[in-house]
Write a structure and sequence with these properties.
Distance between the termini: 32 Å
Strand content: 15-25%
Biased composition (Low complexity): 172-185
Number of domains: 2
Pfam families: LRR_1, LRR_8
Radius of gyration: 18 Å
Keywords: Leucine-rich repeat, Repeat
Number of strands: 10
GO cellular component, one term: cytoplasm
Protein name: LRC58 protein
CATH architecture of the largest domain: Alpha-Beta Horseshoe
CATH topology of the largest domain: Leucine-rich repeat, LRR (right-handed beta-alpha superhelix)
Order of helices and strands: EEEEEHHEEEEHE
Number of helices: 3
C-alpha cells in the first residue's frame, strides 16, 4: 500500500525492478543519484503520478515509460539525455536457447508445463514482443537497441530506448535513429501525441 517513496541522494547506481511490485505507488523520488538507466518494469507502476529523476546519469528513457498512463510530472533536469544520447548500440546474436524459444513462441508450438523442465517453461514466459506490429517476432535477452526521439508536451524531444527483435526488423513508424538528431524528425506522430497527452509536465530546466 506504499504511496510515496523517497530515495534521493543515496548514490544509487541502479533501480531494482522489484519496485514494480508496489501497485499503489504514486510518487517516486530518485533524484540526486548515479542512475544510468530505468528498468522497463517501472511501467507496471500504473498508479504513478510523479517521477523525479533529476540529477542522475540518464542518457535515454525506456520506451515502456509511455505506459505510465497516470504520470503527470516527470523531472529530468541535470541528466545527460537532454544534450546527448547513446551512440554506440551493439547487437549480440541470440543463444541457441533463445533461438529455440523464439521458434516456439512465433510458431505457436504447443507445449504443457509437464513437457519441459521448469526453468525452460519459465524462460518461455519471459518472451517480449517486438514493438513492430508488422513483425510478430519475440526476443528474450538479445535484441537490437534503437534510439527514438519522442515529442513530450509538444515542447521537448526526449530519447527513448526502443527494442527490436533483429537487425533486419525496423520500426514501421520511423527510421532507425542512432547518431543524428535530424533523424528524429521522422518519428511517429502517433507515439508523440500519446506522450503529449500522458505527460502533463516534463521538467528539464
Amino acid at each position: 500500500s506504499l504511496e510515496f517513496l523517497y530515495l534521493g541522494g543515496n548514490f544509487i547506481t541502479s533501480i531494482p525492478p522489484e519496485l514494480a511490485n508496489l501497485p499503489s505507488l504514486s510518487y517516486l523520488v530518485l533524484c540526486d543519484n548515479k542512475i544510468q538507466s530505468i528498468p522497463p518494469q517501472l511501467a507496471q507502476l500504473h498508479s504513478l503520478r510523479s517521477l523525479s529523476l533529476h540529477n542522475n546519469l540518464l542518457t535515454y528513457l525506456p520506451r515502456e515509460i509511455l505506459n505510465l498512463v497516470h504520470l503527470e510530472e516527470l523531472s529530468l533536469r541535470g541528466n545527460p539525455l537532454v544534450v546527448r544520447f547513446v551512440r554506440d548500440l551493439t547487437y549480440n546474436p541470440p543463444s541457441l536457447q533463445e533461438l529455440a524459444g523464439r521458434t516456439v513462441k512465433t510458431r505457436n508450438v504447443p507445449y504443457a508445463p509437464s513437457d519441459l523442465p521448469e526453468n525452460l517453461v519459465r524462460y518461455l514466459s519471459l518472451a517480449s514482443n517486438c514493438p513492430n506490429p508488422k513483425c510478430g517476432g519475440v526476443y528474450f535477452d538479445s535484441c537490437v537497441r534503437q534510439i527514438k526521439f519522442v515529442d513530450f508536451c509538444g515542447k521537448y524531444r526526449l530519447p527513448l530506448m526502443h527494442y527490436l527483435c533483429s537487425p533486419e526488423c525496423s520500426s514501421p513508424c520511423s527510421s532507425a535513429s542512432q547518431s543524428s538528431t535530424s533523424q528524429s524528425e521522422s518519428d511517429s506522430e502517433d507515439e508523440a501525441s500519446v506522450a503529449a497527452r500522458r505527460m502533463q509536465k516534463v521538467l528539464l530546466g
